[in-house]
Amino acid sequence: xxxxxxxxxxxxxxxxxxxxxxxxxxxxxxxxxxxxxxxxxxxxxxxxxxxxxxxxxxxxxxxxxxxxxxxxxxxxxxxxxxxxxxxxxxxxxxxxxxxxxxxxxxxxxxxxxxxxxxxxxxxxxxxxxxxxxxxxxxxxxxxxxxxxxxxxxxxxxxxxxxxxxxxxxxxxxxxxxxxxxxxxxxxxxxxxxxxxxxxxxxxxxxxxxxxxxxxxxxxxxxxxxxxxxxxxxxxxxxxxxxxxxxxxxxxxxxxxxxxxxxxxxxxxxxxxxxxxxxxxxxxxxxxxxxxxxxxxxxxxxxxxxxxxxxxxxxxxxxxxxxxxxxxxxxxxxxxxxxxxxxxxxxxxxxxxxxxxxxxxxxxxxxxxxxxxxxxxxxxxxxxxxxxxxxxxxxxxxxxxxxxxxx
Length: 406
What we know:
Layout: E1 28-34, H1 40-43, E2 68-72, E3 74-75, H2 106-114, E4 123-127, H3 148-156, H4 161-189, H5 194-220, H6 242-258, E5 264-269, H7 285-289, H8 295-320, E6 323-324, E7 327-328, H9 329-332, E8 333-338, E9 354-358, E10 366-368, E11 377-378, H10 379-390
Protein name: Protein containing DUF1552
Organism: Alienimonas chondri
InterPro entries: DUF1552 (IPR011447)
């Protein structure tokens, strides 16, 4: 479970605000990703503007073309970590070189903004291996679920009375320990030099985060979980049965949004070299990304990529068909799809495959994001705009150079 973050100066320019103004429908953010990229030749349209022709990988989104934007020549300019880039997709910062608070991910800024207004400040799932892209303001990697049925139980299955009582005792014990630690910290604070005081401040920040988590869990401890119409009897063949697992994953995201169980989500498809159970796919996934331009390998890889986008299109369609407020759930939900790899066959982190849907933005185009200086636009500029649209008062997100007009 992710934690709600306190307001921290290390998130540049942020200020806390209410999760949703009175009378307004709440906003949500869903970040979808593929750890091993998307084959660029089949993903990027050949022309720009509103009248672009959909690429082969994007054809499943044809009925939604006015609801999403495709971006070319956008990436994280300081990331050169090959496969390790999946850890930095949602932050734009190399986690191995980041200090506490320097690599917070966009979903965790949203989680901090919403807090325990919902039962879960954020929810995370990845099929076939973790993404590791979600980081708290303390630099802690957020745990991801790997089984949709585990996520279902977490979201919608109530604990027994005995389990709730045990958790209540556990929360009380944790609170007592935190009180003790805080008291000890206050007693030594006046005897510390400047470097040790900085370390103590980081430690106290972690304590405040833990206190926020405990308070939030107490708030929802005795509130029954929502009842939903969901078939939990699915029996996938294994972890590579994506035709069964992927619809389950996206259906649970949809139900979590409908039930307002959370407003920040990450989900996607991880890195591995197993054979994904799709018709016509016989090679290991990682091996296919290093296709060497061999036609059969490319065909299989593009079939996998197309499947990812087909599942995304199905999810977006469900959101668009769900009335909410004066519009639809898609109007209130910003859905980001991307990867930290631009071309997995070369381990390139440049020109990332990216699209943004919903959220009330003006969509319908393929945008060339090359800047006047010839460089790609930083992805964090787009993330800054997404956060501002969400209601977070922020001038720039992490190492962004500004915002991005949509």
